[in-house]
Amino acid sequence: MGKTSSDPRTQRILATVDDIPIGQVATYGQVACEAGLPGRARLVGQVLAELPRGSCLPWHRVLSASGAISSRPGPGPAEQQKKLRAEGVRFNRSGRVNLKDCAWDPRPSR
DNA sequence: TGTGTGACTTCTG
DNA sequence: CCAGAAGCCACAC
Predict the structure, then answer these.
(1) Residue A65 CA to nucleotide C5 C1', Å?
(2) CB-count burial class (<10 Å; 0-12, 13-18, 19+) for A68
(3) How confident is the model at residue A107 (pLDDT cuts 50, 70, 90)?
(4) Would you say residue A2 has pLDDT above 50?
(5) A2 CA, C11 C1': separation in Å?
(6) Chain C bases near protein CB atoms (7 A cut-off)
(7) Which domains does chain A have, with CATH numbers?
(8) What's the Å distance between residue A86 CA and nucleotide B3 C1'?
(9) pLDDT 10s digits, A30-42
């Protein structure tokens, strides 16, 4: 074990991602902010990149600030869009999501 | 100790 | 809308 998988920051990031409702999405920056780590969007990406395949966490609901799926090697991007579409999230011709409609707003829940 | 890299964001032109 | 620059930080070398 070891590494930073047990780091409290990592735990908060994972807990925040786990709170994103079905059919809604959040940006890396938003997740970082909700996790108490404003300005640490890259850290969110780093943590998600370490997630094991088949994780029960809704990692696919995390998008870049433009509403696009972040590029990275592997089947991740395609799988992410497939999962989101299965939840009813609509993508435009540019492969982006209209954050105005499905962005997660945690405020009403608190 | 320094440099490069990356599932990022925001500001400028 | 696209490119570049700057800010950010963990990690590998």
Answers:
(1) 18
(2) middle
(3) confident
(4) no
(5) 14
(6) 1, 7-11
(7) 8-104 (1.10.10.10)
(8) 43
(9) 999 999 999 999 9
